[in-house]
Design brief:
alpha+beta; Glutaredoxin; Glutathione S-transferase Yfyf (Class Pi), Chain A, domain 2; four-stranded mixed sheet; 9 helices; 4 strands; globular
Length: 210
């Protein structure tokens, strides 16, 4: 397998965690977003969206982090990242989408660049935008976790929801977001970070970290 990713990309981090949890080896391919390497002809030739992550599994190319994680779960079932029961799978997917669909799209690099370069938003207001959507979005996750507390987002083993949650907290910390209002979220984050799969794949430990 080959994983095209960027060390600070939260979507890439999700897939790194999933691969580590399943103990799958892969070649790390850096695509440096700050240097616009995603716009190069060589990367565009293999990734139409020009987004990371991109996973090559043999001749197959897969994009979108949660689709990749579900593919890995179907092709390498152990340990499972989605519960066996339909209700559990629905809850894990909902928790994942609360972050990946409701928080992350408003705060990814493309959006932040557009706010500053095209809309002429100040750096201060850009950061305020970022913190608002992260802090309010995590409140939704907090309420879900409060309703059914467990060691991880769902149950006593990590799932796709944990793969999505942890990178979002790393980004929240980078932007000095308030996190004291989401104690259940942070409890789950701390539990995850005790596991090697989360710790060893963190951004600053990646080969392209700068």
């Amino acid at each position: 397998m080959e994983l095209y990713n960027y060390f600070r990309s939260s979507a890439s981090y999700r897939v790194r965690i999933a691969l580590a949890l399943k103990r799958l080896d892969y070649d790390y391919k850096s695509v440096h977003l700050q240097k616009n390497e995603q716009l190069s002809e060589s990367f565009s030739a293999v990734q139409a969206s020009r987004l990371v992550p991109l996973l090559h599994d043999g001749d197959v190319g897969l994009s979108q982090s949660m689709a990749i994680i579900e593919y890995l779960d179907e092709t390498h079932p152990e340990p499972p990242l989605l519960p066996r029961d339909a209700l559990g799978r629905a809850r894990v997917r909902a928790l994942s989408q609360d972050i990946a669909c409701e928080i992350h799209p408003l705060n990814n690099l493309r959006v932040l660049r557009y706010l500053v370069r095209d809309m002429k938003v100040s750096e201060e207001d850009k950061d305020r935008w970022y913190r608002h959507w992260v802090e309010t979005g995590l409140q939704v996750v907090e309420r879900r976790l409060q309703a059914a507390p467990s060691t991880y987002c769902h149950g006593d083993t990590p799932t796709m929801a944990d793969c999505v949650l942890v990178p979002q907290i790393f980004n929240a910390q980078r932007f000095n977001c308030r996190l004291d209002h989401v104690p259940q979220v942070m409890r789950v984050f701390d539990a995850c970070m005790k596991l090697d799969a989360f710790e060893q794949t963190r951004p600053e430990k990646c080969p392209d970290a700068a």
